[in-house]
């Protein structure tokens, strides 16, 4: 269960997944169920079942890119998740603090844009300087 599992059916130009025998269809669905266990075991959502069973044809190149993208995305997600769970990342994340300042007075402080910046923006957009 360490690696993500994707089931893809090749040669769909010869016979589609809907046209296979019931025994074969049952076998494919069992493989899909096993692949779903790896998705759920890695913290994925059960709604991702469309990315677990893919069809493709290398002759017509139908679905080849979808298989490649789904596989790469799944591997990348797993790799990022493993890095986020590692001890090193947690050590670095503990060092960060985001300060949210509280207003000290009721004084209004509008944004201040210097005249030079306004002139440069005006020239860039074709307007006349102020």
Automatic annotation (TrEMBL):
Origin: domain of life: Eukaryota
InterPro entries: P-loop_NTPase
Name of the featured protein: Uncharacterized protein
Organism: Erythroxylum novogranatense
